[in-house]
Design goal:
Blueprint: E1 11-15, H1 21-33, E2 38-42, H2 49-56, E3 63-68, H3 74-79, E4 86-90, H4 97-104, E5 113-114, H5 120-132, H6 136-151
Parallel strand pairs: 1-2, 1-3, 3-4, 4-5
Helix pairs in contact: 1-5, 5-6
The chain binds 5-O-phosphono-beta-D-ribofuranose.
Length: about 160
């Protein structure tokens, strides 16, 4: 397995609106605790599709996390433009069910790995699990996290969504 430092890894988080940045920040903090670099960008599938196009072309990104509320087209729009893994986080901004179904119900051929509503913690953990296939440091970070979580689920780092 590669011994490359996680400094070479990058997770890029796209959010549909500035109003979504609070959830993205939880992802960034969790990844920072694992020493995984993370960039966060506001880019809407509807309002700024050209920006989405540009960000998705970033050759340094290993995993994308895309989050949006309401009709939540962003995770699917990102997935349609890349062969890299895309984790979709539906945000509870309207009914909840609206964004959840938009992210989960992707048509065959363009998968999005959907987590639960506002589930920043699971999105960060899933991204780390994907990276762990290549970077042993990520496996070690996950092992430490899981051991702590087993001991004390309610006080594990980032045990909230
Ligand atoms: C979605 O619409 C965004 O992801 C956000 O969650 C929601 C509301 O956006 P704003 O009106 O706050 O920009 O596209």
């Amino acid at each position: 397995m590669s011994e490359r430092s996680t400094a070479f890894v990058k997770v890029t988080v796209l959010v549909g609106s500035k109003s979504d940045l609070d959830v993205a920040e939880k992802v960034r903090v969790r990844l920072a605790e694992f020493s995984i670099p993370c960039e966060v960008h506001v880019a809407s599938a509807h309002r700024t599709p050209e920006k989405v196009d540009r960000l998705v072309q970033d050759p340094e990104t290993d995993v994308f996390i895309a989050m949006a509320g309401l009709s939540a087209a962003l995770p699917g729009a990102v997935a349609a433009r890349t062969l890299k893994p895309v984790i979709g986080v539906p945000l509870h901004r309207g009914l909840g069910l609206d964004s959840l179904l938009s992210v989960v119900q992707m048509p065959p051929g363009i998968p999005v790995a959907a987590v639960g509503l506002d589930a920043a913690e699971n999105a960060a953990l899933l991204a780390t699990e994907i990276l762990a296939l290549k970077y042993p440091q990520c496996t070690q970070a996950l092992e430490r996290y899981r051991a702590k979580w087993r001991e004390e689920p309610t006080s594990a780092p980032g045990s909230s969504r």
